[in-house]
Amino acid sequence: MIALSLSDKPTISITLGTDKSVLYVDEELNIELNVDVHGGFGLLIIRAPPIPSTSMAEGFELIKAITSM
Fold first, then answer.
1. Per residue in 47-65, pLDDT tens?
2. pTM of the predicted model as reported, rounded to 2 decimal places
3. At a CB cut-off of 8 Å and minimum separation 6, what does 9 contact?
4. CA atoms of 25 and 44, how far apart (whole Å)
5. Which residues lie closer than 8 Å to 62 by C-beta, 6 or more apart?
6. Strand 11-18 vs strand 31-38: parallel, antiparallel, or unpaired?
7. Are 18 and 29 in contact (CB under 8 A)?
8. What pLDDT is recorded for position 57?
């Protein structure tokens, strides 16, 4: 296999937003994560939700994933 990238170094921009600044027990928190990638080989791996069967994954639900080229 041969991989070749003719572009400049890749740039990655990540923004994270939440719908609340204060959270109480049993409330839901909506998080929006935007990742913009320019350049590189075109392969990006984002791990979400957290690893299954861990305490972090218990209350995590991925509602929507949007990809664009």
1. 666 777 777 777 777 777 7
2. 0.51
3. 39, 40
4. 34
5. 48, 49
6. antiparallel
7. yes
8. 75
DSSP states along the chain: ------S---EEEEEEEES-SS--TT----EEEEEEEESSSS------SPPTTSGGGTT----------
Q: Which amino acid is at 49?
A: P
Residue 56 backbone phi and psi in degrees, to 5: -70, -30
**CA separation for the pair 27, 4 (Å, rounded):** 47
Pair of tokens at residue 12: 């990655």
57 phi and psi angles, rounded to 5 deg: -80, -15
